[in-house]
Design a protein that fits this description.
The structure holds two protein chains of two kinds. Chain A contains 16 helices and ten strands. By secondary structure, chain A is of the alpha/beta class. Chain A starts with a strand and ends with a helix. By secondary structure, chain B is α/β, with parallel strands linked by helices. In chain B, helix 1 crosses helix 2, helix 7 packs antiparallel against helix 9 and helix 14 crosses helix 15. Chain B is elongated and about 115 Å long. The chains are: A alpha/beta, B alpha/beta. The interface between A and B is medium-sized, with 27 and 25 residues.
Amino acid sequence: MLQIDSRQFVQEHGLLACIQCGKCTGGCPMAIKTRLNPRSLIYRLLISGNGFDLEGREELWDCTTCATCFSRCPKLVNPMEAVIALRGAFVEKGRVHPNVKTALESTFRHGNPLTMPREDRAAWVGDMAVKSIEQGAEYLYYVGCTPSYDPRVQGVTRAIVSLLQGSGLDFGILGAQENCCGSEVRRLGELGLFEMMVEENQETLKSLGVTRMFTTSPHCFNAFKNDYPKNGFQVQHYTQVMAGLLETRSLSFSKPFEKSVTYHDPCYLGKHNGVFDEPRKVLKGIPGLTLVEMDRSREKSLCCEGGGGRMWLEGTNPGTRLAQMRVKEALETGAQVLATACPFCLLTLEEAVKHLNAEGQMRVMDIAEIALQAL
Amino acid sequence: MTNSGVKATTSSESNGRGPAALVIGGGIAGIQAALDLSDAGFHVYLVERSSSIGGRMSQLDKTFPTLDCSSCILTPKMADVPRRPNITLLTGSQVVAVSGEPGDFHVTVERQPRYVDVDSCTGCGLCADVCPVVMPSEFNAGLATQKAVYRRFPQAIPAAFTIEKRASPCKIACPAHIPVQGYVALIAEGKFKEAWQRVRDAGVPFVGTLGRVCYHPCESTCKRADWDEPVAICALKRFAYDAGAEQDIPQPSPRQWDERVAIVGAGPAGLTAAYELLRRGYGVTVFDSLPVAGGMMAVGIPTYRLPREVLDHEIQYICSLGAEVRLNSPVGKDGGPSLDDLRREYDAVFLAVGAHGSSKLGAPGEDLPGVFQALPFLRDLNLGREVKIGKKVAVIGGGNSAIDAARCALRLGAEVHLLYRRSRLEMPAAPHEVAAAEAEGVELTFLVAPTRVLEKDGKVAGVECIRMELGEPDASGRRRPVPLPGSEFIVEVDTLIAAIGQNVESEGFGLETKWDRVVVDPLTLETSLPGVFAGGDAVLGPASVVEAIGAGIEACESIHRFLRGLDLCTGRQPSQPRPQDIIVEPLEQVRRAARLPMVELPPAERISGFREVEQGYTAEQALAEAQRCLSCAVCSECMQCVVACERGAIRHDDQPTQLELQVGAMIVATGYDIFDPRRKPEFGYGVYPQVITTLEFERLASASGPTAGKITLNGHLPKKVVFIQCVGSRDRTLGLPNCSRVCCMAVAKQAHLAHDRLPGAEITVFYMDVRAFGKGFEEFYDRVRNEGVIYRRGNPSEIVKRGDKVVVRAEDTLLSEPIEVEADLVVLAVGMLPRQDADDLSKTLNLARGEDGYFRESHPKLRTMESNVPGVFLAGCCQGAKDIPDTVAHAKAAASAAMILLARKGAGNASD
């Protein structure tokens, strides 16, 4: 039995406003291939009286928190947040997948979900000269866990540093002091750990006097922007910073990148935060580059299935990954490069390209990597 | 908002008993209320914003649930309105101010010009046949086009046409306000002669000349640049002359007035004024000290830029209209008549003497043989006099005259160095002229100034220069050059041409001057002496041909008013937006097309003589280039409609007017807006041609619509049709929480029409719940389902593309399954919204609005037709979404409530 107090739950989550129109389920990318049905779930919660048993509802772990349900709801109900809250009931009882357990424990111990040693966090710097935020800087570059440790994504991190140093932007990093933002912890339902991390990180940022920061990952960007208490510091995604630098001509591209590129909107940049134009502005600013759009772009972008803690979970239907569907859509455009601006999207899409044996036709690149080639 | 030049008339007609009523809005609600008030014997002013009454109902095909034809029941009511002697219909009008109290309101109505006289227009449409501007038809929801002169729909009341006019940046930016869009539109139609004539009719006699030498400030404001590059306006003007100019010389212009005007200076300003004055029927005598007419156009501009046969033809044309041109006739000097002599002999004088003086170099040795001033150098060359220069020439200066002198010297066989004291960025010369000079071989040296001219054997042997650097910006905004001490160097040349400035020779006229320039009133060009006007370079200092032409046109207007005893200022400063503030919505999708480059002679061929460098467009090129125009102003003022109209009904110079009305009660019936589904991007409206709105469906289904009632998409009959309910209603994400009330039944009706007209088609309606609450509604819903229309419960989440079809993604909530339904036509049931500009009327009348944005009734049950303001009543959808029966009932209720007030007031007055 995994009983929750459903009467209180539906009140707290505003589910009573639901008119059962089905827009959430109709747009949900996971509903089509798993048992996840946000509308039906809400309906069951609404009619269950005082108690609702979550036993057997493994589909709750299928949600990628892509925000499509929330963005389509005409009554401002947020099924995604309800799912996250329901996951909490599993976490509380310790009823989680061993991979999730490992990730949560690692975040608690090492400040990252990747079981990597804390002291290696700035190893990506290598022979680059990157200023520490302790020396004082206008911006904090919050690198994030995957961009710090994952050998594939480290390239993106280094590209961002090269580009922004070239533009003369004054920024510093936290180095080994940097701690996970907690975004995925929260989405896996571990709210207690998340609150602890918010406190720790707030303390660090406050003591260093950080007022402006930018991130590699849209997930960290979203966490600092929307999940942390409002505390006066401005957070941007790196593509927003770059678009601003292009506007003031502090950054400009000289080498042509003669390829056709299609851009995959990461959920946490686009649907969650409405950042659709800045990444495109950067791409359009690169000489020689032809930007072609997929049918599903911007508000209609298809999730890659990497969010909501899904980097550590297979879900109930591991067969067809959304990333593979997405790469097929990208291939249809005839583009040579599939660009994105999120470490998770980069990894899942690259994996899908390999799986589809499409490496000869398409390369997956982060916008920063493309921009660096054009510098 | 009061517009200058607005005529105000007061109307307190009371063609009936008691005080009159005002009805705002001419849709079905407004029409019904007006007819009822009129029936009851009250006078009614019916104010409608658009050009016709009829409103939304006129756009509908059938009405639910009875399926009677919307036009068939509406048109008789519309037609009744102009037949009623006690209804005054004011179209194109808006209420802008209200004061007073119930029974005695004072209302100001602003009427926008229609540009077509309603009484003379027979609605024959000859104007639209010749109009070159095509725009989307608002009445047909953008599915068909109409001309810039149009009638909203065939049954429109009034039946007169109307012209759509907006602002165009090019015309505003032009110093002579040439109707650019007009002649460009005519060229695009292949009407080259008409294009040439259009420019001339705007008071500009120098079409071929301007088309060659203008610095075209119009092009830098051209909105086409927001898509690719500005339209080549100047080159098109040249083409209008080259291809369209009449070679025959005209008959003299008939004299209409006895007065004679003396013009001093036969340059662009003087000759333009002469042209305009002759056309207006005055006698004109032009004096010029030079042996040729044309001023700087003739003696300043080299022939490789402006061939003399073009200029001479255009001047000859003016002379033939009846101008007496006295050459070699200085005024105020060299024994010629004085200004006072002219004032005595003529009724007015226009002084346009130009800026023919040259500034001195101020360097030792500048009087040596071999040192020229640019202006006399160019003058002698242009007059065919012998000019002897050496083999190596230095030109000093960075303006247009410097470039002209340098390029001429090159053509005389010299090696030419141009020395300029600032950098390229600060050069006043036109950039394309500088580039041409460079291409031809002129050596440019920047940041150098001459300090003295070196002498050998009594002739020029070189020039000593000093290097400069740029300091702080000076009064002109350009950075001031500062000499670098000790940086002197020598340029060995045998000829020096100084082109460092022109000035006005204004002494001897007895006029007030400032820095040698004649001081005038900037609006009227009046000088310090009555009856003497001045313009062009004499006033502006060295400026441009087009500015001089603009001055000539203004001078003519002032002289005409002066001679006719009219006020010199009235109506001459129309409030026009700044070109950069004009926002343009292109009339159709802009397809990228680069500006066509002008063919030029190769540099090597150019410098062997004085042949014209630019070769002009071919007819094919000109047509293509002219078609790039975005028609910013919609109506291009090409004047073809004026020619075509047999009744003389076109009034291009119509101005807005204001009307003061006295009324006892007001009924607001302003209707609703329709939701723009682009605000829900997940449906791909505007991206997928297969996705349309219910309004577009009405126009497709209508027998009078663009497809004559065939429901087709790109000529194909759709086989799978999907309707989606509640798009833009019941949606809190958009701040539109209310139900639009009509969509459930409108969709049922449209599903029926689709079933009826598309045999065998699969028709699916996605719904959340079906609201069939009215009389006969549920029965109609039953009928439609029985016809085979499938209703699926679930509100679709998105539409995506699959091949040439679109796929509607939804959850069938009865199956609890996500589904995908293929369609080749998707109809979005778009909601009704409060008018976007409801705030304006709300402020004018103090009307309260509800949280939903509609005007608020004073009691939700008992007084839904009364507003919060006593004496102001609400009718129809301005108070909330309604279907037609409810709207008509509401309008009749509002009329009745107004009648009670009017009758009481009438009775009160009678007993007074």
